[in-house]
Amino acid sequence: MNCEKCHKETPKGNIYTFYYGKHLDTLVDRWSTLAEVKVTKTYVYHIMGSYSGYICNKCIMKKSIGSFLWFFLIVSFFFAIIITTKIYWSFLPLLCLCVVFGIGYWYMGRKNAGDSILAEIHEERLQGQGANHFFSRSEYAGLKPYTERPYSK
Ligand SMILES: [Zn+2]
After folding, report:
1. 78 with 94: CB under 8 angstroms?
2. How many A from CA of 67 to the centre of ligand 1?
3. How many angstroms is it from 9 CA to the middle of ligand 1?
4. Alpha carbon of 17 to ligand 1 centroid (Å)
5. 137 C-alpha vs ligand 1 centroid, how far in Å?
6. How does residue 151 score in pLDDT terms, banded at 50, 70 and 90?
7. Which among 66, 88, 121, 150 has most CB atoms closer than 10 A?
8. pLDDT at position 6, please?
9. What's the 19 CA to ligand 1 centre distance in angstroms?
10. pTM of the full predicted structure?
11. Does residue 126 register a pLDDT over 70?
């Protein structure tokens, strides 16, 4: 498939999705207890739509190189401990842990990076249609429905 970012034809990639919409309103809810005044803000968005497209793994790697460096730094730190303390028996479970953690990290990080690369590509075009907020799938899942009102007495 053709990568939307680098426009290269490669089978190594995935379909990513982002959501776009408008910030409609910010609802401010204040209430006071004896000690303090508390404020909660609820951001109300109108979700206009979503877009899915193909991004190759190379472009994802380029985008998330910073977090991958951190991951490798942490892994090599643990391996350095094993080697210097010569506790080789702890090698195997730790290796398994690193592999599991690495796969999870790649999957989660890749998804977010891919969604935001895709959003960056289409940002200008969608801003022309009135969109001013872009959400990755995990951000979208964390959004409250735009019709929701904060609880008030
Ligand atoms: Zn690419």
Report:
1. yes
2. 19
3. 8
4. 15
5. 20
6. very low
7. 121
8. 96
9. 20
10. 0.70
11. yes
**Cα of 131 to ligand 1 centre, how many Å?**
25
Q: What is the mean pLDDT of the chain?
A: 84
> How many CA atoms lie within 13 Å of 30's alpha carbon, on the beta-carbon side?
3
pLDDT by residue (tens digit) across 69-107? Answer: 887 888 888 788 877 887 777 677 777 887 888 788 777
Order of strands across the sheet that contains 37-56: 37-56, 13-32, 133-136
Question: Strand pairing partners for 9?
Answer: 2
Which is nearest to 123 in space by CA: 18, 6, 46?
18
CA of 108 from ligand 1 middle (Å) equals: 18
Give, as one character, the DSSP assignment of residue 90: G
Count the residues in the chain: 153
